[in-house]
Sequence to fold (545 residues):
Amino acid sequence: MQFPLFIISGYSRPQDPQMSVPSQEWVEWERWGGMSMNVEEKPSRPQSRFEIVPVRPPPAEFPNGEESSDEEKATSGLYEDVQFSDLPPDPDAHLSEEERAAILCVLYLLAFLDRTNIGNAKIDGLQKDLHNMSTGKYNATLSIFFVSYSVFEPITNVMLKRFRPSIFVPAIIIIWGLCMTFMGFVENWSGLMAARWFLGLAEAGLFPGINYYLSCWYKRSEFGIRAAIFFSAAAVSGSFGGLLAAAIVKMDGIGGLHGWAWIFILEGIVTVLAGFISFWAVHDFPDQATFLSESDRIRVIRRLKADKQASAEHEEFSMRYVWMALKDYKMWLGMIIYMGADMPLYAFSLFLPTIITQMGYTTTRAQLLSVPPYAAAAIFTVVIGFVADRTRQRGLCNIATSFLGIAGFAMLLGSQVAGVKYAGTFLAALGIYPCISNTISWISNNIEGSYKRGVVLGFVIGWGNLNGIVSSNIYFQKPKYTVGHATVMAYMIVCLLGGSILLHLLLRRENAKRRAGERDHLVQGMTEQEKNVLGDARPDFIYTT
Fold:
């Protein structure tokens, strides 16, 4: 029997030969949506939720994989609404590589730090020192990163799958670390443009790749908190980057280099070192993970297959998966939702020091005042990830959180009082950052097939990042930045909020049809293997709403 993963894993196997589990009658009643559906055939509510059953042997004793019981289906994806907080932890949960999460967070912290530290360099005199670079040219250096970054993102997950994470991830980290280091030696705008182009090209594989990688290790109800912790590194990098930049710029003049140049050089060197370390720290997908024994690999794959992730065992690449992704409406709606969060994210992270400076604060104080909003966002991102996993209402979490961001930018747009505007930066951060990881988790939860999921995440994240070009070119009317704040608000209202509401309603409607048996005709006469090929189109695959 499979049990849901708690946040802290690694428990020993339960020794009690009996335990309380949801009764078959309760599971069937929950399948029909509990008291929320008015269907004549719906069974009546059972008197008792639980029954006492013997504990089945652990999954390792069934290496050939037997048909999942109804209770196992309830913990996977078939009966998505059943709550199992009263059950003990999954005895196989510790096999997923929890201990590697820390290094993944550090890698993304460095990635986000390296792409946004140009904002810190700007307020330290980057434009002036590079022959009085115009605002238009500066914005072009921001935009060029997102062009190469977005163009290559859709294909990077296929490359990650083909060349293995333990090789692909360290290689791109070393490359972008070198680009970052050499950026400290540029002497003109052309050199800066070239460095930013190659930086975007090298970084393109990390964020979609790691999210795809994590989605291949964890069940759908476990992925959200991991994605949230991973992405919270972006918020931490914002706070950490401000503190670090305030210290590094004091090296101005050392080696004949400007303070902003040392920001690029030192952070680039650290990234290169992290890349070499990651050759030993990053593992491969479950079916190839060398740190697991053969029996442990079987157990990991079994628990993922019980979560309707049949592709966890093995899947050969075929262009069919690309076409399946392109024909899936969830990918296109996911792209709209994600751009509604990602464009505001880059606008916020690239221009927050500048926005605070325009409130009347000195350069150093502006760097330091950028820290608290990021710290609050990091904490709130993890909280939303936890709540969304437990409730499995990722759409509602997106909707509720987006209102905070809209309110924050409304304060920045409508007030000229420094205290009110600074409070607005807090709400803006709280409304943007959680929606990034939650949207990725939401889309990933609802796409089955490892290659199809990789393609979908590549397109969703790539399109969102392409809108970073918009972010780079809307903050030019200082000190009010009316166009910038208004554009961000429009993105959040129309794309993030509106798109989340639409996808939530569509998925709820489809789940109702699947529970009512209206999609069962799609698999009549099919073998189990043929059903697996359908991926998330299987009638017994219940979407996370």
Residues 362 and 522 are 65 Å apart (CA to CA). The first helix runs from residue 24 to 31. The radius of gyration is 24 Å. The chain has two domains: 19-55, 99-510.
